Every structure is written in C-alpha cells, then in structure tokens.
Amino acid sequence: MNYCVHSIMYGYYAFRALQVSVPRPIAMVVTSLQIVQMVFGFYVSSYAFAVKLTGGYCDIPMKTATFGFLVYVTFFCLFANLFIDNYGLRKLLVGGGRNKGGGGKEEVVGKCVNGNGVEKTTMRNADGEESKSTTTTTTSTTTKKDL
Fold first, then answer.
1. One domain for residues 31 and 61
2. Which run of H or E residues covers position 39?
3. What's the whole-model pTM score?
4. 46-56: pLDDT as tens digits
5. Rounded distance, CA 41 to CA 47, Å?
6. What's the total number of domains in the chain?
7. CA-CA to 130 of 20 to 30 Å: which in 28, 61, 69, 139?
8. Exposed/middle/buried for 45, CB within 10 Å: 0-12, 13-18, 19+?
9. Domain shared by 69 and 128, yes or no
C-alpha cells in the first residue's frame, strides 16, 4: 500500500514541480489516499499493540507497535488537517460555508520578483482555485548627475 500511495504522490509532485496544472480533484485523491494509508497503518499497529498487551503471539516487537501507533496517529492528524485547510473544509466546519456568489475574497499565496522587474503572483480564491499573474515593473534610478 505504501508503494502504491507514494508512486501516485511522487507522480503528482513531479507534475507540480514542472508547473503542470493538476486538477484539484487529483490533489484531493492524493491526500485522501495518504489519510487511508494512515488509517490502515493505525489499524495494524493497534492490532499488534493489543495482541502484545494480551500476551498473544505477534512478530512485531512492542516498541515497534507503540512507535507505529504514535506515528500513524500523528500523520493522520497532519494529513486530515492538510485536507481540511487545502480544500475549503475549514470554513464549512467552523461555520460560514462557501460564498454563494461563487467569487469571494482572494488571497496571495506566492509572490516573487526577478532581476528584470517581472513580478509573478499566485492567488487563491475562496474555492481554493489558484490563478497566476505576471506584472512587469519599471524602476528608475536617480543619480547625483540627474539632479
């Protein structure tokens, strides 16, 4: 299961690194698969932990079962929080829901200016959709000679 999830995840990251636009549902599936993997790992670790506590036979050492239990719970919480934050569920859970008008407030999620004065800005709207814009700025410098 780990190999399968990581193969999909690294494929997704490769496309994003190449600045290929990946549909939002694909990103949601990747995060969902990671959450399912954590639930499965939590189950296996919990089962091994319970078997060890009751004196049953299990090849997994108690330290490994305990550590696995803690790691999977921690990662589950992190991925669940990522899912809630990235896919607009925080507003639904806290109250307010989505803006019925379809638009709404945009936030800047990335901005950089290169040496040629070209500014690239990435915005995210209330629905979590990203848009990019490029602005060319001109700067003038004043020297003593110009005064």
1. yes
2. helix 24-53
3. 0.58
4. 898 889 889 89
5. 10
6. 2
7. 139
8. buried
9. no
Q: Which residue has better confidence, 63 or 103?
A: 63
Q: Do both 133 and 74 map to the same domain?
A: no
Residue-wise pLDDT for 60-90, tens only, equals 888 888 898 899 999 999 999 988 888 877 6
Instruction: Tell me: do 85 and 35 sit in the same domain.
Output: yes
* Token code pair at residue 106: 């945009």
Q: Which residues contact 102 (CB under 8 A, 6 or more apart)?
A: 127
Query: Residue 68 has which token pair?
Result: 């696995």
Range of the domain at 117: 107-142
Indicate the length of the chain as a whole number: 147
Token pair 């989505």: residue? 98
Instruction: Tell me, yes or no, whether 119 and 86 share the same domain.
Output: no
Find the DSSP H helices in the chain: 2-17, 24-53, 62-86, 89-94
33 lies in some domain: yes
Among the ranges given (39-43, 72-76, 137-141), the one the predictor scored with the smallest mean pLDDT: 137-141
For 69, half-sphere exposure in the C-beta direction (CA atoms, 13 angstrom radius) is 14
Calculate Rg over the CA atoms of the chain. Answer: 23
